Amino acid sequence: METERILFVDDELAALEGYRRILHKEFSIDTAVGPKQGLTLAASKGPYAVIVSDMRMPEMDGAEFLARIRELYPDSVRMAITGYADFETAAHAINEGRIFRFLTKPCEKEMLIAALAAAVEQYKLVKAEKELLEKTLKGSVHVLTEMLSVLNPAAFSRSERIHRCVQHVVGKMKLESPWRFEIAALLSHLGCATLDPELVESYYAGQILDPKDQAKIAGHPAVAAHLLASIPRLEQVAWMIAHQNTPTVQFLLQKQDQPADVVDGARILNVAIAYDKLLGQGHGSDQVLGELKQQPQNYDVQVIEKLAGFHGDTTAAMEVRECKMAELRIGMVLKEEVRTSGGLLVVAKGQEVTSPLLMRLKNFYERKQITGDLVVLVPVVQGALVH
């Protein structure tokens, strides 16, 4: 079984050698002389389960160092140790570094071992909860998106593209817990499941809608937010979706009841949705970015700049093929939309074939509402088509 690793950071080599000597039997210990080496080790050999820092160090004190660690490696449990205990130092470390324990020198071996054991256990609990949360949420989101793909394929296809866009921007902005923003993107059009697919198509094609239909379109984010708000840990996701069409100027004028990164998530969604809509109407990427920049009251310019160089096409390594319904496989991508003989949209262009979608297509085919071959994109691996 892998042993969780602990990093000690101190500017005194003798202190580090002492930690290694008394703790090597109980824990896997690495040491760093000073905060700069500590950051380098954390980047190259991390993530560490626990990081213990001395408070009084030149160039960067322990509070600042642990605050940097919290920003870069939020799952690592942080502890501070000092020979100069005072209320101000302790308060600064707790507030800036969000530390788990604050110890004073000299620290008895038994006390140090107990504190480290508790910190390792805390790390394991946080890690286990995070893994469970991610698996549970991913499963729930998968079910919801599959439902959307069946009920409103045009909205689902749009959500997939918006997700790739948001994923790119969040990576550029280095936001913590990126899963929140990616889920918000995937579920941004969940409310469209209650709308007529033709209405959604008309709106994103730029057609003028009557006031009643326009109100329905404008209300779909609130529908999705209401559905998600009662799911534990998705409250912030629901808020982002509810505010995905809020103009930037409104965020600036009104104080929000959410953390800054959650507000950023709504701004990112706002830009991604507008970006995808304009692309879908035949505009080039550079042209779209230019148009959005001319509306700083509506769209966040910093988010727009992060989209420069974004390429959302995931079908570059795929080959076009015509196939019969019996040959259709999960993972293929529909190059052309599929409609019934009566004109009902069954699958939007660019949608990946999933298990529920495959069943849906076969049902329409068996009822002879879909006829003829399908034009698909097939993944290519090392020059060979995937069958």
Defining traits:
single chain; 387 residues; alpha/beta; Rossmann fold; Hypothetical protein af1432; Molybdopterin biosynthesis moea protein, domain 2; 5-stranded parallel beta sheet; 4-stranded antiparallel beta sheet; 15 helices; 13% strand; disordered C terminus
Q: State the helix count.
A: 15
User: How many structural domains?
Assistant: 3
Characterize the overall form: elongated
Count of β-strands: 11
Q: Give the strand order of the largest sheet, numbering strands 1, 2, ... along the chain.
A: 2-1-3-4-5
Name of the level-1 CATH class of the largest domain: Mainly Alpha
In the predicted model, the low-confidence regions spanning at least 5 consecutive residues are: 382-387
Span of the ends, CA to CA:
39 Å
Derived structural class: alpha/beta
Average pLDDT confidence is: 86
What is the second-level CATH architecture of the largest domain?
Orthogonal Bundle
Q: Which value, in Å, is the CA radius of gyration? A: 26 Å
**CATH fold field value of the largest domain:** Hypothetical protein af1432
